[in-house]
Amino acid sequence: MKNVALFDFDGTITEKDTLFDFIRFTHGNIGFIRCLLFNIWNLALYALKLRTNERAKEKLLATILTGNRTNLFKEQCKLYCKERIPQILNKKAVAIIQKHKSNGEELYIVSASPEDWITPWALANGFTGVIATQLEKKNGALTGKFSSRNCYGNEKVNRLKKQFPIREDYYIYAYGDSNSDKPMLEYANEGNFIKNAIAVTPAIPPAR
Questions:
Q1: 75, exposed or middle or buried, with CB in 10 Å at 0-12, 13-18, 19+?
Q2: What is the residue-wise DSSP string for 108-155?
Q3: How far apart are CA 177 and CA 141, in angstroms?
Q4: How confident is the model at residue 196, as a pLDDT?
Q5: pLDDT at position 194, please?
């Protein structure tokens, strides 16, 4: 049996959601405010639960990404991983990651954020892979659409079932910080809620 540790990214490994943080990092304060103003109606519909998380996020990202050259976006993501992510890491989460790493377990990030601004940091810090939302790219540019389902809630489990098709072959630890992570935590043998203030408490009883 192989041991695997799964980590949500936003609010678990990091101390804040990286979606808006990435927009501010790449577009500055003025660009960030313009993006929010352009998405007032979109965000209002989401807040009223009249628009899904997936649709709201896709439309928000389309505002800043549609038509961007893939190579430029890739460089922006690398720079974000190098300069910004280290500033917003949850230190206690990093300690947990190091513990699993020292035990020789495979590490995966499972996130609703696009894989593009997670993967460079993850691979540089000993993670085996990233399971996350994928952005559509055509003819060397971003289309502003997703090429996968938004990796959120139950979709995290759907993606994990593809990654680990023979469930009995794996003993899975999982860490998350919100209700949207509960399906993943319940799928694991040991699921833990991890908060910025950091108390790590079992979400479900450990499997025996």
A1: exposed
A2: EEEEEEEGGGTHHHHHHTT-SEEEEE-EEEETTEEEEEESS----THH
A3: 33
A4: 57
A5: 85
- Per-residue tokens: 144: 């502003």
- Number of Cβ within a 10 Å radius of residue 62: 17
Contacts of 173 (CB under 8 A, 6+ apart): 3, 4, 5, 6, 100, 105, 188, 189, 190, 191, 192
Closest CA to 174 of 187, 164, 161, 162: 187
Pick from 169, 162, 160: which is nearest to 191 by CA?
A: 160
pLDDT tens-digit series, residues 122-180:
999 999 999 999 999 999 999 999 999 999 999 999 999 999 999 999 999 999 999 99
Tokens of 165: 């098709």
Tell me how far apart the alpha carbons of residues 19 and 10 are, in angstroms, rounded to a whole number.
Answer: 9
3-state secondary structure 69-105: EHHHHHHHHHHHHHHHHHHCECHHHHHHHHHHHHCCC
Kind of pairing between the strands at 170-176 and 190-194: parallel
Strand partners, 175: 7, 192
| CA 155 – CA 191 distance, rounded (Å) | 17
Q: In which residue ranges of the chain is pLDDT below 70? A: 196-208
Q: How many CA atoms lie within 13 A of 153 on its CB side?
A: 7
User: What angle, 0 to 180 degrees and rounded to 10, lies between the N-to-C axes of helices 40-47 and 18-38?
Assistant: 120
Judge contact between 64 and 143, C-beta under 8 A: no
Q: Residue 76: its pLDDT value, please?
A: 98
